[in-house]
């Protein structure tokens, strides 16, 4: 083989490898947030035993009474926690992304610290350090009253949200509902229309006007109608 031909082949190989490396780096750079931790990956980090295993882990380790013990209103609460799973499956930098309170975020952080080694995220067929966002849902119920909404404990902005409410030992005409910043209209027979303007979380207070005492409270998550 002539020297110049050998040089040209080496040059072609170098260009090919460089181009491939740049291509791979381009893919990775879209996912890296800082350092070598990925935000978007081909395959997210996951609990080693899958969804069934995660559910069993929660049943065994999560204390579902934490919001009740901290006097949370009736409702459904979804806590979202972010953490890093490294390429070896170890968890670090656990950080709540929600601020619901009533001890729920702390409880999820506590059980994640006990969750052991996870299956690492995959990017370009290799294990990488990556962020993981994990939701955990709590439910608080009260047997003394029954509430029904089209979407469980969720209201939508600038919409006529219809709810039905039955309270033990309280007549409908003696029941008063209030939500800060919302308009509540009674339609009779325990049915109400609620209109709210802002997204977030609101608390509905229930009051017995005849006995002049509070009955309880309900927490709703308020979303944009396009999120239905």
Brief summary of the model shown:
This protein is an alpha+beta fold. Helix content is 24%, strand content 40%. The chain has 2 domains: 31-140, Fusion Protein Consisting Of Minor Coat Protein, Glycine Rich Linker, Tola, And A His Tag, Chain: A, Domain 2, CATH 3.30.1150; 145-227, Immunoglobulins (Immunoglobulin-like, Sandwich).
Explain this structure.
The protein contains four helices and 14 strands. The longest helix has 29 residues, at 3-31. It has helices at 3-31, 50-61, 66-69, 104-113; strands at residues 32-34, 37-38, 75-85, 91-96, 121-123, 126-140, 145-149, 154-156, 161-167, 175-179, 183-188, 191-195, 200-208, 213-223. The N and C termini lie far apart (69 Å). It is elongated and about 65 Å long. 24% of the residues lie in helices and 40% in strands. By secondary structure, the chain is α+β, with helices and mostly antiparallel strands. Strands 1, 2, 3, 4, 5 and 6 form a six-stranded mixed beta sheet that branches. Strands 7-9-12-11 form a four-stranded antiparallel beta sheet, with no helix packed on it. It has a four-stranded mixed beta sheet with strand order 8-14-13-10, with no helix packed on it. It has two domains: 31-140, Fusion Protein Consisting Of Minor Coat Protein, Glycine Rich Linker, Tola, And A His Tag, Chain: A, Domain 2 (2-Layer Sandwich), CATH 3.30.1150; 145-227, Sandwich (Immunoglobulin-like).
Question: What is the number of independent domains?
Answer: 2
**Number of distinct helices:** 4
Second CATH tier, the architecture of the largest domain: 2-Layer Sandwich
Number of strands: 14
How far the N terminus sits from the C terminus, by CA atoms, comes to 69 Å
CATH class of the largest domain: Alpha Beta
Query: Which series of helices and strands comes N to C?
Result: HEEHHEEHEEEEEEEEEE
Give helix % range: 10-25%
Which outline best applies? elongated
> If you average the pLDDT, what whole number results?
84
Biggest sheet, open or closed, and with what strands and sense? 6 strands, mixed
CATH fold group of the largest domain: Fusion Protein Consisting Of Minor Coat Protein, Glycine Rich Linker, Tola, And A His Tag, Chain: A, Domain 2
Low-confidence stretches: 1-31
Global structural class:
alpha+beta
Question: How big a fraction of the residues is strand?
Answer: 35-45%
């Amino acid at each position: 083989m002539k020297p110049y031909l050998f040089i040209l082949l080496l040059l072609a190989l170098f260009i090919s490898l460089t181009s491939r490396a740049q291509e791979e780096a381009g893919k990775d750079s879209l996912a890296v947030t800082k350092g070598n931790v990925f935000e978007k990956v081909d395959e997210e980090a996951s609990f080693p035993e899958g969804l069934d295993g995660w559910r069993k882990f929660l049943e065994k380790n999560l204390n579902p009474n934490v919001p009740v013990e901290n006097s949370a209103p009736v409702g459904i609460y979804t806590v979202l926690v972010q953490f890093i799973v490294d390429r070896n499956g170890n968890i670090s930098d656990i950080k709540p992304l929600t601020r619901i309170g009533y001890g729920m975020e702390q409880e999820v952080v506590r059980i994640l610290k006990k969750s052991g080694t996870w299956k690492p995220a995959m990017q370009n067929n290799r294990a990488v350090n990556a962020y993981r966002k994990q939701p955990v849902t709590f439910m608080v119920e009260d047997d003394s009253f029954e509430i029904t909404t089209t979407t469980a404990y969720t209201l939508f902005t600038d919409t006529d949200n219809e709810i039905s409410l039955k309270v033990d030992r309280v007549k409908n005409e003696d029941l008063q509902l209030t939500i800060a910043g919302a308009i509540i209209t009674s339609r009779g027979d325990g049915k109400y229309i609620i209109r709210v303007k802002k997204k977030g979380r609101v608390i509905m207070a229930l009051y017995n006007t005849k006995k002049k005492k509070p009955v309880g409270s309900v927490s709703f998550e308020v979303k944009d109608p396009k999120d239905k």
